Amino acid sequence: MRTLLASCLVLSAVGLAHAEPKAVKPNKDWTGVMKDDTQKKLAPKDGFIVEAKEFEKLWKAWRTDEKLPEIDFTKEVVVVTLASGPNYPRISATLDEGTLEINAISTLIGGEGFGYSIATFDRKGITKVGTKKLPAK
Q: Which domain holds residue 23?
């Protein structure tokens, strides 16, 4: 009986050993506001970018006057977050068992256009962004 009770306690403790989500900061975070709502269609449908050509297309459309930054997509993932109207999203992120969760807040000023955040995160340890699985490197 004692052995069974001890085994149950050990199994219970193992089940409770789930680690808390870890706060992670982006390596880079560029924000801006686009007045043209049609530019929203360039945002990645899954919320992230893992290849240079897709990133270049987005960058040249949204940040027209700036040099394209170099990103090693084998080591980083780009996460794109949007806010409605002329509002900048402010992001925070956590990593929990391979899932990168992005939380965004913004003001609620009405108007045309949209705000965006283009942020890079270390890819190590990330298997999903939200509910979307990252493709293999």
A: 19-133
